[in-house]
Amino acid sequence: MRDAQVVLLHNERDEWELPGGKLALGESPEQCVGREIYEETGLDVIAAALLDTWVYEITPQVRVLIVTYGCVERSQHNAVLSHEHQHLAWFPVHGLAALRMPEGYKQSVYCWAQRLRSSSHASA
Question: What is the DSSP letter of 4?
């Protein structure tokens, strides 16, 4: 997230999704998130907080365990679309409800946005 906006990727199922992917051998989930986000967007982030876990049924035969993390940028770069997706865009958090996107992803983004707002108010 940056300035109350979240970067999303448009996939072949005509859905918006958070960047991410599968664990590499010997990799922690937190390392995986940072690597996948970098590979898919060019953004340099660290996983700061575990937000949620849920099972996403892509098809009746394919179910995926989704683990979402709130991430913070180590340094700001322009996001760049990789070959893995059709589109990359930044969306305001309040605009997610209208997107074709798994509800679990939306809930994770809302949760992280709330935590960021709460921490910025606490430090102000």
Answer: T
* Model confidence pLDDT, tens digit, residues 45-92: 999 999 999 999 989 999 999 999 999 999 999 999 998 899 999 999
Q: Among 43, 24, 47, which Cα is nearest to 88's?
A: 43
Q: Quick one: pLDDT at residue 84?
A: 87
Query: What are the angstrom distances between the C-alpha of 92 and each of 11, 20, 58, 95?
Result: 19, 19, 25, 5
Residue 69 contacts residue 50 (beta carbons within 8 Å): yes
- The Cα–Cα gap between 11 and 16 comes to 6
Nearest to 113 by CA among 121, 103, 102, 123: 121
Q: pTM of the predicted model, to two decimals?
A: 0.90
Mean pLDDT score of the chain = 94
Type of residue numbered 53: T
* Phi and psi at residue 115, to the nearest 5°: -60, -40
Domains and CATH numbers, the chain: 5-123 (3.90.79.10)
